[in-house]
Design a protein that fits this description.
This protein is of the alpha+beta class. The chain has four domains: about 10-150, Trypsin-like serine proteases (Thrombin, subunit H); about 160-170 and about 210-345, no CATH class; about 350-460, Dna Ligase, domain 1; about 465-625, no CATH class. The chain has a six-stranded antiparallel barrel with strand order 1-2-3-6-5-4. A hairpin with a 2-residue loop joins strand 19 (about 400-410) and strand 20. Helix 6 runs parallel beside helix 9 and helix 8 packs antiparallel against helix 9 (about 425-445).
Length: about 625
């Protein structure tokens, strides 16, 4: 039970903090104190204008401390900071109550409404780290209400929260650039020149201290402590605090939604859930405002709204938190803006089905079914977290392993298939990163808007290093005639195993001059590097067909690729390599090209073949071979 509000002089700590805060506001100039932009006109019978607020005003806050019951706590206004940002003001307040005196401002209190004489002032939204008293920032309600007008402008198409590529973040350090999808993404320019979609919005620095948004518990039923520690590092700075919880509340919710109720933004649901827990600020018919600050500042979103149940409070020295779980679907969040998250009670949004099957060393697989929010780029982030959590749960561990991965991603009438083999330091996050990067690649294509309708991922894992290095390459002879077959033997040194040999066969063109040619044999990573160097700008896609063809051009980690190349100049026309062009014609076309559609190729392709083995392949070798019409070997 909260104690009665007791008028009291601010403590010495509070007085010093507030004095420094207001001095900084004064030094900021007139705009900080009296010339801030006028707030939106609001209904004075229901809402309190910031112009009415005075230091010393006594208010009442509402939030859930246990279960679903909304409780009141006392609030004293300490000061007002005008023009804290363009068009924005802040209200500084201190909370009172038996619970809050012990815990301070809790993670999960974001959005807790504050009332003055029954009229809404705003929502608790920010605080300062390591405060000795429960001091918080209130977002004025006038800065949250404009979100309600956005409901009248809904088109049903607002599923792209913005641009961004998050897949590379999930990869273990150093593995993205050497991966198949990493090479494809680099060639296609996925993520180039766009803002960091997880960068936290600046809240402010006042009184010499950084102000931060009240933390949001991100409750998940996936993984364990080590896994959540990795997720916390990934999300560091966003304000989302991953905590272990249940995938549901066991039917403990259902008490209805009102100002002060706990509410969740659900990113993943199904065999595991990922739910951000906050508090409802205002209910207007079927529309609600919550949190008082953004999650990602994504703009238009489409994410399930769920009710929530607070199991207990965790009063920690670092930062206290509500321990809560997301519950039943009650609607859809449609806005993630600078001062709020807003949604509509009613139908749930359309989600992306994701099936994950994990098999270890050929044994029976564990299967997981999820639904992922559709808002990009956060769909790729949380799809990856769903996968990594599923792999961790299936294996009961995460660490170095060899893996075979196969994915199918449906988009429109097309289904993109992707397979690769790799050795990784962290199988769970590598698998999640591969899926996220494929999603980024599909959705961030510059040619045509695509939506993902369903996804499946199959992963076969062995807790051992299954890799091989190309030790030696031999040809059946050194001199060939046009039209001959070149037989190549590749000797592989296997990790802690015996040598093995693979044979590849390449056919020479029937029309080819006498010349020296180069044979290159390598694993996927080596092939990707030399193809990028050989083709240069000619590899960059000019249309959607070429964009998706990059997946087919790339090679899985278990591939051995053999190429015969000529020093004769080559050409790429609108991204497609031209072959068998006479040397003088190629030079003339390259030198006369002015449209940007013709790109020179450093070495022209003569012949190429490949094979795959049961493990990742590393390394490469180069050899010279001779073409002679008479077949004489008298070099």
């Amino acid at each position: 039970m909260n104690r009665r509000f007791r008028p009291a002089e601010p403590t010495r700590y509070t007085r010093a903090f507030l004095t420094a805060l207001l001095v900084v506001g004064a030094l900021a100039g007139p705009a900080a104190l009296g010339d801030a932009p006028r707030c939106l006109e609001i209904d004075p019978e229901r809402f309190v204008s910031i112009d009415e607020i005075r230091p010393g005003d006594r208010c009442v806050g509402r939030t859930v401390f246990s279960g679903t019951d909304v409780e009141e706590f006392e609030v004293e206004i300490l000061g007002i900071v005008r023009g804290s940002a363009p068009g924005s003001d802040l209200i500084i307040a201190r909370a009172y109550g038996e619970i809050l005196e012990k815990t301070g401002i809790l993670q999960g209190m974001s959005g807790s409404p504050v009332y003055k004489e029954g009229r809404l002032v705003g929502a608790l939204s920010a605080t300062w780290p390591f405060t000795k008293e429960p001091i918080a920032v209130i977002t004025p309600i006038a800065e949250m209400l404009p979100a309600l007008s956005a409901f009248d402008e809904e088109t049903g198409e607002g599923t792209r929260g913005g641009s961004g590529a998050l897949g590379s973040r999930l990869f273990p350090e150093g593995e993205f650039t050497s991966s198949r999808i990493g090479w494809v993404s680099g060639i296609a320019g996925v993520g180039d020149g766009i803002a960091d979609p997880l960068a936290p919005a600046a809240v402010g620095v006042y009184g010499g201290h950084e102000m931060v948004a009240i933390g949001v518990p991100l409750v998940t039923s996936a993984g364990g402590e080590g896994y959540l520690g990795r997720v916390a590092r990934l999300l560091e700075g966003t304000g989302l605090a991953p905590v272990s919880g249940a995938s549901g509340t066991g039917g403990e919710t259902g008490g209805g939604i009102e100002p002060g109720s706990a509410v969740g933004v659900q990113f993943v649901r199904g065999d595991a859930s990922w739910t951000a827990i906050g508090t409802v600020t205002h209910v207007d018919g079927d529309r609600i405002l919550a949190f008082g600050h953004p999650l990602f500042n994504a703009g238009a979103i489409e994410s399930p709204m769920v009710d929530a149940y607070v199991h207990t409070l965790l009063p920690l020295q670092s930062v206290s938190s509500k321990f809560a779980s997301g519950g039943e679907l009650i609607g859809t969040f449609v806005q993630d803006r600078r001062r709020m998250v807003a949604g509509r009670l009613g139908p749930a949004p359309t989600m992306i089905p994701l099936t994950v099957r994990v098999r270890e060393a050929g044994y029976a697989s564990a299967e997981f079914d999820f639904e992922i929010l559709r808002t990009h780029p956060y769909s790729s982030l949380f799809a990856a977290l769903a996968v990594s959590g599923a792999v961790t749960e299936a294996l009961k561990a995460s660490g170095p392993a060899s893996a075979e991965l196969a994915m199918e991603v449906a988009t429109g009438d097309d289904v993109l298939t992707y397979e690769t083999t790799f050795y990784t330091s962290d199988a769970a996050f590598r698998a999640g990163g591969e899926l996220a990067a494929i999603m980024d690649f599909l959705i961030e294509n510059p040619f045509e808007e695509r939506e993902i309708s369903s996804m499946t991922l199959d992963l076969d894992i062995r807790a051992e290093r299954r890799s091989a290095v190309i030790e030696r390459v031999d040809m059946d002879r050194a001199v060939y005639r046009p039209g001959d077959e070149v037989v190549v033997r590749v000797v592989l040194g296997q990790w802690q195993g015996a040598e093995s040999t693979e044979t590849l066969r390449l056919t020479l063109p029937a029309r080819i001059p006498d010349e020296y040619l180069m044979l290159r044999v390598g694993g996927a990573e080596s092939y990707h590097l030399w193809e990028a160097e050989r083709l240069g700008a000619g590899l960059v896609p000019r249309n959607l067909e070429q964009y998706f063809a990059l997946i087919d051009r790339s090679k899985p980690g278990n591939a051995i690729v053999a190429q015969i190349l000529s020093e004769r100049p080559g050409l790429s026309l609108s991204g497609d390599e031209l072959r068998d062009i006479p040397g003088r014609a190629a030079l003339a076309m390259a030198s006369s090209a002015t449209s940007g559609e013709v790109d020179p190729v450093e070495f022209s392709m003569v012949s190429q073949t490949e094979t795959t083995i049961d493990r990742q392949v590393e390394g490469f070798h180069e050899l010279l071979l001779v073409i002679r019409h008479d077949g004489r070997n008298d070099r």
